[in-house]
Amino acid sequence: MPTDVVVCNGCCCGNTEKGHPEVPIDFLKNAWNEYGLEEHVKLRISKCLGPCSMHNVSLLRTEEKQEWLGKLSQKEHYEALIEWACNIVENKYNTEIPEKLLPHRFQRFQEVVIRD
Question: DSSP states of 13-31 as a string?
């Protein structure tokens, strides 16, 4: 599994008509280019990651773990995503998420597959 930041910008996330803050996609893309992050940490923009009740959802993934974040509403939250990616480049996988994002963590339920 690659190391990546997956940012939702779909039906609810970033939808200002539904009252959710805009997701700063261009800001993130520019930072990825400026810091040369793409080689080490992929930036992926998703149409819908679910869970829509958390709006403005992002997922931080490494080979070891994944962190779900929701209700990202301020520029500083997205700056913290960039900080995390920069820390991955410097420290490899021994990187914790920035303190600013800790209150935004949540547990994503496990998908249940029913087989006949």
Answer: TT-GGGTPPPP-HHHHHHH
Nearest to 99, CA basis, from 116, 84, 114, 115 = 84
For the stretch 75-97, pLDDT in tens is 999 999 999 999 999 887 668 89
- Burial (0-12, 13-18, 19+ Cβ within 10 Å), 100: middle
**Cβ contacts of residue 40 below 8 Å, gap of 6+?**
3, 85, 88, 89
Q: Is the pTM of this model over 0.85?
A: yes
The architecture CATH gives domain 4-106: 3-Layer(aba) Sandwich (3.40)
